[in-house]
Amino acid sequence: MLNLSTRVVTRLGRPDAFYHAPSADFKRLSGSYTPARFSQFASDLRSAQLTVKGNEIPNNRLGPCAEDEFPPISAKTYKGLLEAGKAAFRNGEIGAVILAGGTASRLTKNKIFWEIEGGKTLLQLKLYATIGRAREGGIDIPLYIMTSPATRHDVVKMANELGYEEGIDFMVSDQSMLPVLTPGGEMVGFNERILFAPTGHGAVFPTMQNTGVLDWMAKRGVKYVVQSNIDNPLVALDSQDSNPFLAYVGYHANAEREITAQVSRKEPLFMGGIPLWYKPEEGKRRLAIIETNQIEPKYLEQFNSLLPYFNPLTLIYNLGFLRKFDAARLPVVVIEREDKDPNSGEVILKYVKLETMSGSITMAEPANFLPDTIPGVYREGMFTQLKGLDQLEAWKARLVSRFPDFFKA
Does domain 2-55+75-259+317-356+392-408 have CATH number 3.90.550.10? Predict the structure, then answer.
């Protein structure tokens, strides 16, 4: 095990980048990852059988897609979809998932703490947009929040400050975490404690299955589960005519597939989940969300500027499907990161994380893809992800005007 010195840990300068725990806590933190499975991962890293290069899907199994492969939604069609979504909303058939387990290791401050106005944080706004607006209209949206040991206390505290009660308004549990490894496959420790990091948002599927969340939602009549991220604050659940998101729910309710993924127009250099034509090892070619670290870099450069859309990790699932989905079908990817001295830029620590991505569920199961062509959605930036504090600053006035009652309260 690589033991970090006090000097190195101090110079990392980001206490929320990792979670420190005794080695005995492995079983409690690792969720569906057994010690034997993790040991095999570490062994494969040491022998170079597991590498970042190994994440890449062969080029002959991928292909770019064009805008005309995402048919626009006409005003006439939109009206029927909105009514179907409102019916599901009024009937209490919608549940929600917010992912809040990440430690924001690439940012200077975790997004859950980003302040908008009057002490209200981005997480609190997301909670209000997801269940608060609906509750004001007499509609119950059961919410599950996936946290980690590094974020759970603060998440529950912020929810309680808004008057939301655990076990009634929301359920919360921790996603799995694994020890951080050096590129050579050694665990990283400090003062006889191991550095753990979340295993990616793909952990949401086994976590919901293993903690009874899906049963809790089903008993409350939920049929459809909406997943959206903290940094998608304009994705709201309410029955106002000005809220087009329920049309996406209506589209999903009328569709035959188990998953609907939203896609939004992207900037040419955007890095994230991209809808591409994907050929599984067995089965027919279909659209799927592929992470950029799963694409050979030169191949990505050839068509990235031409690709019209990305996925902002807003998805809708059938609850019954989530109950039976085998999360072992998700690819495990190797993420290499490095931490630098905030002053000199010197690399202090290079490390490796093992992650699964929730968007990769579309690689395992065919999905519907619905673009942001519903009138007003793209113009209003409904699926825009807030990627930094500078972008949040530019959006503050828009967020306050979209949810005025929240910020006046």
Answer: yes
